[in-house]
Specification:
By secondary structure, the protein is α/β, with parallel strands linked by helices. 41% of the residues lie in helices and 19% in strands. It is built from 16 helices and 15 strands. The chain has helices spanning 22-25, 33-39, 55-69, 81-84, 93-108, 124-128, 136-152, 165-174, 185-209, 232-255, 319-330, 349-367, 410-421, 426-432, 437-441, 448-451, and strands spanning 7-9, 15-19, 74-78, 112-118, 158-163, 214-226, 257-259, 264-266, 277-289, 299-302, 336-340, 372-377, 397-400, 405-408, 423-425. The strands form four sheets. The protein has an eight-stranded parallel beta barrel, surrounded by seven helices. Strands 1-15 form a two-stranded antiparallel sheet. The longest helix is centred in the middle third of the chain and has 25 residues, at 185-209. It is globular, with a radius of gyration of 21 Å. The two termini are 30 Å apart. 53% of the residues are buried. The mean pLDDT is 96. The protein binds beta-D-galactopyranose (GAL). The site of beta-D-galactopyranose (GAL) has 12 residues, from loops.
């Protein structure tokens, strides 16, 4: 039988980039809550962000060269609030100038910047004043956003207000993996609600300063499928978990209603407060009802047996979940950017397959005329992975954090070819992921969980 050959073309002007965040790449972020958390020994293996990827000291240059030389045309990065406002109401002009230099450097290299204003880390002073549990954080955030956007508006017009409010509120307040580690569902909900207010206020302020700005959030969507579709309990518990984790925030910033299963609050200024839908997608889990999992809304998650799992068991390669995520995101009727997607894999074997499978889903969506406008792979160079420290390697380039030496993984070449040719072709699959040629070009459908 002749091999099927086909080229999946992406729309013209598609953005191809990688995503990074300040604390994970800059190094030396002593003024934020993560640094304190690291000093308190809360990271896997007692690791520290340390000098991270050395971006603040200038290594952003060589890494953005890597991005540009490999045909990327965009880059998502974040600003570190604690650098810009080291003390309440005190602005650090040098820090703003440094960010201007980085953004100019990105543009100069042909990389359209997408700028995140809050990516998990907070100034220590904010935390001392009550952090995100206190609604006063909303105004404090807005004044930082105003200063940052006024200083940078000539260099960026794609803004993400807050990265993954659901993950931040869950890991920092519902559980104890992120600072401040409250472990309290009520606090988690309160923080989520404050973040929705903060996003909405920031959205309006950015538009006052820069009417042409495109502003959104980066929503983390974790695909959830009932383990036994025939079980009413599994279905119900999946619905509740997905509503709380995946849907609450996107619905609030769409409809202006913060809708919990037990109460609904109106936040009118949050209605229609996104110009695009930012989607972070990594994985999918099967959910079963479990009376012992009260803290998880009585649901227990596990990865499907037929999905490949990453080396530390963190991510299952589940492209059907990407399709589900995109289909759902499309319901908000906004342009969509995949603002993060990737897998930790030092050996780079799974990553090449993961990339092929997920890019095919992005293409599939674009091909159906869903309004997908860009894709940002997580990430460019291995970086500090939060509570998991340096134990997970998400980079297209490997990093030795001690010597700061980078080495290219094969996925970097794969991704470069995709970006350069603006397509995913059978020739690329043959070269970079030949073992899944049939899966990509013949079947079975990636949505196998759907059939369960
Ligand atoms: C996301 C987060 C990123 C990165 C990634 C991989 O949730 O936004 O900062 O850490 O996960 O772990």
């Amino acid at each position: 039988m002749a091999m099927i050959r086909a080229t999946f073309h992406f729309p013209q002007g598609f953005l191809w980039g990688t995503a990074t965040s300040a604390h994970q790449v800059e190094g030396g972020n002593r003024g934020n809550d993560w640094w304190a958390w690291e000093e308190a020994g809360r990271i896997n293996g007692n690791e520290r962000s340390g000098e991270a990827c050395g971006w603040w000291e200038g290594r952003w240059r060589e890494d953005l060269d890597r991005a540009a030389d490999s045909s990327q045309n965009a880059h998502r990065l974040s600003l570190e609030w604690s650098r810009i406002e080291p003390e309440p109401g005190k602005w650090d002009q040098d820090a703003l100038d440094r960010y201007r230099e980085i953004l100019r450097g990105a543009i100069h290299r042909g990389l359209t910047p997408m700028v995140t204003l809050h990516h998990f880390s907070n100034p220590r002073w904010l935390v001392e004043q009550g952090g995100w549990l206190d609604p006063a954080a909303i105004d404090r955030f807005v004044s930082y956003v105003r200063t940052a956007v006024e200083a940078l508006e000539d260099l960026a017009s794609l803004w993400i207000t807050i990265n993954e409010p659901n993950v931040y509120a869950y890991l920092g307040y519902g559980s104890d993996e992120f600072p401040p580690g409250a472990g309290d569902l009520r606090q988690q909900i309160q923080v989520l609600q404050n973040l929705v207010h903060a996003h909405a206020a920031a959205y309006h302020v950015i538009h006052q300063i820069q009417p042409e700005a495109q502003v959104g959030l980066a929503h983390h969507y974790r695909s959830m499928v009932p383990a036994k579709p025939g079980s009413l309990f599994d279905r119900q518990v999946t619905r509740i978990r997905s509503q709380l984790f995946n849907e609450l925030v996107p619905e609030a910033v769409h409809s202006g209603r913060f809708r919990l299963p037990w109460r609904s609050t109106r936040i009118p200024e949050a209605a229609n407060s996104q110009d695009f839908f930012g989607l972070n997608y990594y994985t999918e889990e099967l959910i079963s009802f479990d009376v012992r999992s009260a803290k998880q809304a009585f649901g227990r998650g596990q990865y499907a047996a037929d999905h490949e799992v990453s080396p530390t068991g963190f991510i299952a390669s589940a492209p059907g979940g990407m399709r589900r995520a995109l289909r759902w995101a499309r319901g908000f009727n906004l342009p969509i950017y995949v603002t993060e997607n990737g897998v930790e894999d030092p050996s780079d074997e799974l990553r090449r397959r993961y990339l092929a499978r997920h890019l095919k889903e992005v293409w599939h969506a674009a091909n159906l005329n869903w309004r997908v406008r860009g894709y940002f792979h997580w990430t460019l160079v291995d970086n500090f992975e939060w509570e998991r420290g340096w134990s997970q390697r998400f980079g297209l380039w490997a990093l030795d954090p001690v010597t700061q030496e980078r080495s290219k993984r094969m996925s970097a070449d794969f991704y470069a070819q995709v970006a350069r040719e603006n397509c995913l072709s059978s020739e690329m699959i043959e070269r970079y992921a030949p073992e899944i040629y049939d899966e990509i070009y013949v079947g079975p459908p990636p949505d196998s969980a759907e059939a369960r």
